[in-house]
Design brief:
single chain; globular; alpha/beta; eight-stranded mixed beta sheet; 278 residues
Length: 278
């Protein structure tokens, strides 16, 4: 028997379940609904990326992108090291692009070395990895190379804008030597010069593209030009300190495309900031 003057407490509202991976990969017509559910529940996607709206009000592309054959692949832009670690452990992650995540604090340093690099030996799905403008040092790059030595699927590695230097590149070469999957390596702006990093070319027989933009490199070794690896198609040597007079006196000249700065839209300076940081 209810007492007069007392109100029954309101029934608790049922919580909405977060969208599943399958829902995240559905067509654009359901994007607004999915975005609203993510915002209402204050959740992030499985890859750790919070969905946002574009200026016109439409939802941004989901980090889960449907392939033409119906399978799903994740392209992840983590905001911190924890999200990097989580994304690298998800089998569906095909591309992982980390920008401006500083790796130089003592705790961060240890977590990067032990929780991100070391477990990479168990990763069998990553195809493209970017760790750019993260203040990566020589020993960190070496540990990363160790984790990737026998990686079965990684084909592109971008370490642009760090502090790896020449010693770090030599360490990387020793650790990753024998990898036959990696075809593209970006070492732009890593203060590698003045010597040309020949060791990394010798270590990667499948390498077809090597980016060395703005590294204070002063010369191109003649042994590279006379014994150019068959698969190595392009080396980006723009904005270095090359001694062109000395280079032009060599018996074998480098391909012009290695040095072109203007007149070639494919050789523009690398973008310094990701548009995804809004």
């Amino acid at each position: 028997m209810k007492k007069k003057g007392l109100l029954s407490p309101p029934k608790p509202q049922a919580l909405q379940a977060p969208p599943t991976d399958t829902e995240l990969g559905t067509a654009d017509k359901s994007g607004d609904e999915l975005l609203s559910r993510m915002e209402d529940a204050s959740l992030s996607s499985p890859a750790g990326i919070t969905l946002r709206r574009r200026p016109d009000g439409s939802p941004e592309a989901s980090p889960v992108q449907a392939k033409s054959d119906g399978k799903e692949e994740k392209i992840v832009y983590p905001k911190d090291l924890e999200q990097m670690i989580m994304a690298s452990s998800i089998p569906a992650t095909k591309e992982l692009h980390a920008f401006h995540i500083k790796m130089n604090g003592s705790l961060i340093y240890s977590k990067f070395m032990n929780d991100f690099c070391k477990p990479l030996v168990f990763n069998v799905s990553l195809e493209i990895l970017t760790v750019s403008d993260c203040e990566l040092a020589a020993d960190q790059a070496n540990r990363l190379a160790t984790g990737l030595k026998n990686h079965p699927t990684l084909r592109r590695l971008c370490l642009r804008g760090n502090t790896i230097r020449s010693g770090g590149v030599d360490l990387m070469a020793g650790s990753i030597k024998g990898n036959t999957r990696l075809t593209s390596l970006d070492l732009d702006e890593n203060a590698i010069g003045p010597a040309f990093p020949m060791s990394i070319i010798l270590a990667l027989p499948s390498l077809s593209k090597l980016n060395l933009y703005d590294n204070v490199i002063k010369n191109i070794p003649q042994k590279l030009l006379t014994n150019l690896p068959q698969k190595l198609d392009d080396i980006d040597l723009r904005h270095n300190a090359l001694n062109m007079k000395r280079i032009m006196e060599q018996p074998v000249l480098p391909p012009t495309r290695w040095l072109v700065t203007e007149q070639n839209p494919d050789k523009e300076p690398p973008a310094r900031h990701s548009t995804l940081f809004g």
